[in-house]
Write a structure and sequence with these properties.
564 residues, alpha/beta, Rossmann fold, Glutamyl-tRNA Synthetase, domain 2, Ribosomal Protein L25, Chain P, 3 domains, 7-stranded mixed β-sheet, 29 strands, binds adenosine-5'-triphosphate, binds magnesium ion
Length: 564
């Protein structure tokens, strides 16, 4: 917040401050208006942070409004997940509203427009309506039903509501101007007939309002001062204002900002639903999905997502943000809060030949060098350990500072060891590395001041716990998955290697205790998160439990994608 104040105001903050200063409004009320037809994605998170963030900054409030005007695609499952995700992000709404709560009022207003001669029932098919709409350079054609009398229109509209007509046989249109330069004004459709069950109003309605007719009026009913939406709605704004003006109702106003796009992913709910339905991912919360629940399962924190949204700011022009920036925000937060643990993902055995067979000791390890208050823990040590297979090379190139025959390295928090020999299987794979240790280097430093170039992590083979670890790459191989040649779809851009499952990983035994109990973040279940030293940030996955540990890699310690 403080950081915010020092920053230059964005254009929305400027508008709000001006309105507050000149007394246009005493306090502000924003809204977040998702359609409950899918799970929220990171683009929605941007909108949430903006709407709730502005209200918070200026002492106002934010409504959550479900824009549930399309019964066919909507479901209560989505309503629940949306509330969950907003809460998890750390925001609270003033009220929960549904556009469907306003169906009666919207209907009355539609009758009012008919009575004012500003709306009519059209019997043209949707195809005819589209064909007669004209183009940007040519005017449209008036519907043959455009001049129906007020009485006839009222009668037909009431019968539409009563269910007398079939889907698609009639619509209610605003009567504006079929030659208007803004296509939105060419008699926009206000209502369509849909004999469909609605998740809240049941079978009460068989006519449903269109977005342009419902949205502004809903804003007005709630007294929304700033109706913030994405840029593609700027051509809708004059129509938004037109309805409010004709109805003479409370004037809410619409403002547009650039939608968030991120490289190597898709962000339309329709496409995300397709990925789920057709099994390309394990669900809406698959850790590779750009959904909020996907990021949560991946190990993202609410703080990291809010910091990301803050960092990208509010733009007036569309752009594409790099996925790396999300990871940067995550690393920045987890570096401060994640407990460090040791885990070996691709284990190979290391035997310390001069360490007594039956001896076991505990060594002290720092939990988080960024936060002294997190203290230390005891890590068991014995003659047989596991180290990362890639931390040993029989014939190392220059500048390889890890373990190799004859070189001495530090085992993190433990001792200096020197590799002596290896055992191999029939195929020549190393099955065991033999080494010797220097007992004087306990804790990781040599009393004679001698230095080693490498430090590697390890776990005690006798004490380690088995784990499954899932590593992720980008879900799509193309920077802009939506841009495809003829005959191809975004699915052709899926990355076939976006998931790698490692079995038989070995983790420090205390992790079994660490993950006991449940984490609740703003009232929502969240994973346990760790930094596995040198390997990245990881979190528990709900597929696992205390007897079968499963971890997701949230991100690596450094940006590993830049170099490509
Ligand atoms: P989608 O195209 O993914 O289905 P939508 O805009 O139809 O998205 P809604 O549920 O209608 O989804 O969106 C709710 C709110 O979130 C709207 O105010 C919308 O402008 C905003 N929003 C949606 N996508 C983005 C995005 N990528 N960046 C910023 N805001 C977004
Ligand atoms: Mg929408």
């Amino acid at each position: 917040m403080e950081e915010n104040n020092e920053k230059q105001l964005n254009f929305l903050e400027e508008i709000i401050e001006k309105g507050l200063n000149d007394g246009t409004y005493k306090s502000i009320l924003t809204r977040f208006p998702p359609e409950p037809n899918g799970y929220l994605h990171i683009g929605h998170a941007k909108s949430i942070c903006l709407n709730f963030g502005l209200a918070k900054k200026y002492g106002g409030k934010t409504n959550l409004r479900f824009d549930d005007t399309n019964p066919v695609k909507e479901d209560t499952e989505y309503v629940d997940s949306i509330q969950n995700d907003i809460r998890w992000l750390g925001f609270e709404w003033a009220g929960v509203h549904y556009a469907s709560d306003y169906f009666e009022q919207l209907y009355e207003w539609a009758e009012l427009l008919i009575k004012k001669g500003l709306a009519y029932v059209d019997d043209q098919t949707l195809d005819e309506i589209r064909a007669n709409r004209g183009t940007v350079t040519s005017p449209g054609k008036n519907s043959p039903y455009r001049d129906r009398t007020v009485e006839e229109n009222l009668d037909l509209f009431r019968r539409m509501k009563a269910g007398e007509f079939e889907d698609g046989s009639k619509v209610l249109r605003a009567k504006i101007d079929m030659a208007h330069p803004n296509m939105m004004f060419r008699d926009p459709i206000m209502y369509r007939i849909l004999h469909a069950h609605h998740h809240r109003t049941g079978d009460k309605w068989c006519i449903y309002p269109m977005y342009d007719y419902a949205h502004g009026q809903s804003d007005s009913i709630e007294g929304i001062t700033h109706s913030i939406c994405t840029l593609e709605f700027d051509i809708h704004r004059p129509l938004y204002d037109w309805f409010i003006e004709q109805l003479g109702i409370w004037p809410s106003h619409q403002y547009e900002f650039a939608r968030l796009n991120i490289d190597y992913t898709v962000m339309s709910k329709r496409k995300l639903l397709q990925l789920v339905k057709e099994g390309y991912v394990s669900g809406w919360d698959d850790p590779r999905m750009p959904t909020i629940c996907g990021f949560r399962r991946r190990g993202y924190t609410p703080e990291s997502i809010r910091a990301f949204c803050d960092r990208i700011g509010v733009a007036k022009r569309d752009n594409i943000i790099s996925y790396s920036l999300l990871e940067f925000s995550l690393r920045e937060h987890l570096n401060k809060v994640a407990q460090r643990r040791m885990a070996v993902l691709d284990p190979v055995k290391l035997v310390i030949d001069n360490y007594p067979e039956n001896k076991e000791e505990t060594l002290t390890a720092v939990n988080n060098p960024e936060n002294e208050a997190d203290g230390t823990r005891e890590v068991p040590f014995c003659r047989e350990l596991y180290i990362e297979r890639e931390d040993f090379m029989e014939n190392p190139p220059k500048k390889y500072f890890r373990l190799s025959p004859g070189t001495e390295v530090r085992l993190r928090y433990a001792y200096f060891v020197t590799a002596q020999s290896v055992e191999k299987d029939a195929d020549g794979n190393i099955t065991c590395i033999h080494c010797t240790y220097d007992p004087a280097t306990r804790g990781g430093d040599a009393p004679d001041g001698r230095k080693v170039k490498g430090t590697i992590h390890w776990v005690s083979a006798r004490h380690a716990v088995d784990a499954e670890v899932r590593l992720f790459d980008r879900l799509f191989a193309a920077e802009a998955p939506d841009e495809v040649e003829e005959g191809k779809t975004f699915l052709d851009n899926l990355n076939p290697d976006s998931l790698r499952v490692l079995k038989g990983c070995k983790v420090e035994p205390c992790i079994a205790d660490d993950i006991k109990g449940h984490i609740s973040e703003n009232g929502v279940a969240a994973p346990h998160r760790f930094q596995f030293e040198r390997m990245g940030y990881f979190c528990t996955d709900p597929d696992g439990d205390e007897s079968h540990l499963v971890f997701n890699r949230s991100c690596t310690l450094k940006d590993s994608w830049k170099k490509a």
